[in-house]
Design the sequence.
């Protein structure tokens, strides 16, 4: 384990409940952060818009007062200043602008001189742009609204005094040809205060929400995992020798139900595998005990009466039982290898027709009249291990030869994408109810057969395992006379000519 992984494991929770709660809190925090960012900007934008609308209304009111020849009052909710051409001091100021620089001529710049109304009778509008409020040398920072030295959005509009009567211009203290400019400062303080208050509320509610989300996620996962804990406790008592325990399947229909069902199916397979293993061990011990008993009994009798013993017959019996033990041991080892599901060697192309013909010519028939015939029409190629195919066919032929009365017939055919091989004998056949049981290990249907002639009882089981290993099937085909075993294997393309 690397140092980074060790450090991560120190702080990363091991509990699924804690991990789920942490994941829920992290996801909620990301979502809430995005929502908070959007709310922050939206509140600031709306507050700024309200402040601008308030400043615009004040600008309209000031313009209307000036056009009526009235000097606006110094008392105002927003800072404003009215300047004019040809005048060194401000016409009017209020809302804190008059305190920015006591004794100053005016704070904001004067407009350009006009000789006609600024918009020629068009619908009224105003201009807005950022302006820096200058700080005068004699300005006291502790006085006023603290506007000096800062930049604000400023709304302004121009008025041509030529539109006014002489009395109104005189009342305002400007010449008849002067130009007045009305400035209204838009203060962002309200928008910033509202936004800051909203941010604090969002932060507090977000923290409380994250705590609640984490707690709800933790306890929800805890309740959801109770069936899993019950399954764990129950399965802890399951052993390979006694896998009979089954977990309770919840009736809720969620993923825990699927887990419990799958676990019960697994335990059922384990139970079947354990029972099959016990049965196989018992059958193998029984099959090994029979030749060992015969061998030991013959040798003990010969040793007890050495003068009267037929030593050639005793040696022959011992050799026969030893060969039987050898055959049984080889079959057991082969089954053990097949049960491990070890990967097969690189598959080669095998001509099943040629292999069947060769086995038919080399097969040693029993000491009784028996005909072995191999019929084929064309090469039949399959992929796989040649030795495994030879063992499979030999087991089928040996089984047919033991049960045939007079004739065994092997047929190989190409049928579409399959190669079909049948081994048919004219013996007593197999009852339909035993068509699958004969492929089980150590199964003999005819108890009257001798053990020597009946084989080990593993040949057909090995043959079926080898067929499945090569993606094929081995079944017993229905016949009115004798038994017919049908082997189906995927057809392979012909190998390139050498």
Sequence:
């Amino acid at each position: 384990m690397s140092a980074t992984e060790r450090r991560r494991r120190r702080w990363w929770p091991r509990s699924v409940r804690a991990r789920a709660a942490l994941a829920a809190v992290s996801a909620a925090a990301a979502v809430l952060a995005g929502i908070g960012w959007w709310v922050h900007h939206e509140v600031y934008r709306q507050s700024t818009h309200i402040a601008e609308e308030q400043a615009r209304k004040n600008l309209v009111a000031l313009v209307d007062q000036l056009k009526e020849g009235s000097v606006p009052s110094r008392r105002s909710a927003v800072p404003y200043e009215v300047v004019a051409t040809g005048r060194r001091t401000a016409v009017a100021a209020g809302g804190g602008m008059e305190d920015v620089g006591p004794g100053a001529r005016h704070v904001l710049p004067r407009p350009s001189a006009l000789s006609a109304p600024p918009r020629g009778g068009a619908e009224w509008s105003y201009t807005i742009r950022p302006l820096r409020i200058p700080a005068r040398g004699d300005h006291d920072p502790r006085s006023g609204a603290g506007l000096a030295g800062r930049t604000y959005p400023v709304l302004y509009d121009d008025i041509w005094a030529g539109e006014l009567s002489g009395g109104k211009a005189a009342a305002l203290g400007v010449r008849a040809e002067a130009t007045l400019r009305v400035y209204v400062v838009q203060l962002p303080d309200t928008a910033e205060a509202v936004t800051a208050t909203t941010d604090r509320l969002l932060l507090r509610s977000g923290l409380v929400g994250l705590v609640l989300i984490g707690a709800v996620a933790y306890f929800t996962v805890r309740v959801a995992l109770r069936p899993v804990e019950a399954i764990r406790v129950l399965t802890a008592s399951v052993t390979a020798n006694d896998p009979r325990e089954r977990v309770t399947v919840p009736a809720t229909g969620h993923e825990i139900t699927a887990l419990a069902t799958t676990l019960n199916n697994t335990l059922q397979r384990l139970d079947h595998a354990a029972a099959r293993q016990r049965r196989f061990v018992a059958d193998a011990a029984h099959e090994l005990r029979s030749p060992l008993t015969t061998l030991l009994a013959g040798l003990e009798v010969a040793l007890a009466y050495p003068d009267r013993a037929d030593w050639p017959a005793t040696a022959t019996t011992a050799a026969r039982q030893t060969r039987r033990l050898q055959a049984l041991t080889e079959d057991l080892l082969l089954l053990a290898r097949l049960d491990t599901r070890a990967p097969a060697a690189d598959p080669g192309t095998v001509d099943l027709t040629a292999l069947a013909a060769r086995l038919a010519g080399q097969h040693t028939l029993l000491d009784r009249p028996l005909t072995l015939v191999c019929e084929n029409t064309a090469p039949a190629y399959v992929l796989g291990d040649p030795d495994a195919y030879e063992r499979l066919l030999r087991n089928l032929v040996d089984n047919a030869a033991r049960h045939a009365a007079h004739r065994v017939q092997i047929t190989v055919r190409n049928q579409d994408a399959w190669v079909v091989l049948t081994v048919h004998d004219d013996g007593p056949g197999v009852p339909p109810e035993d068509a699958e049981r004969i492929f089980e290990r150590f199964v003999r249907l005819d108890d009257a057969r001798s053990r020597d002639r009946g084989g080990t009882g593993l040949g057909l089981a090995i043959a079926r395992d080898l067929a499945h290993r090569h993606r094929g099937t081995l079944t017993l085909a229905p016949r009115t006379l004798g038994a017919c075993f049908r082997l189906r294997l995927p057809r392979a393309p012909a190998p390139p000519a050498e």
User: Anything to note?
Assistant: The first strand starts at residue 80 and ends at 84.
